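subagent[fold] <- orchestrator: predict structure for attached chain, return tokens only, no commentary.
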Amino acid sequence: MITYTTVIETQRSPEVAFAYLSDLANLERWDPGTKESVQVGGDGPGLGATYDVKVGHISMRYAVEEFDAPSTVLARGSHPLVMSTDSMSVEPLGDGSRVTYRAELTPRGPLKVLNPMFDRLFQRMGDDAAEGLARALNGRRSNIHL
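subagent[fold] -> orchestrator:
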């Protein structure tokens, strides 16, 4: 498994930050690696919502498995060659909030042997996504290391 974690501090309230993050249709707005994200199941963000997400040349079906507004959302994406688990948590910080975004990527099948190569690529993609998320939330990446 390959993991990436980032922390963003923003002046946006926890409710506003969570509303933006919990709608996975917004992925394509802040993650440059996401080419398209469309909700295909459920009525807006929430437990059980499903999204078709295209990352590069891979299309994955994401399902929201945990949803506790305005603090936590967890979604899993699946493809025969890779599984992705994305979790986002939001906590109050002064007048704004602190967002922690964690992505876990598990290569499957023949991609398992390429795990070290994917780790470096995934870290670069994570950095790009973190910068995009900071811009989208009008925030900044924190120096907190998890």
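orchestrator: received. Logging for downstream: Residues 2-141 form a domain with the Alpha-D-Glucose-1,6-Bisphosphate; Chain A, domain 4 fold (CATH 3.30.530.20). The longest helix spans residues 115-136.
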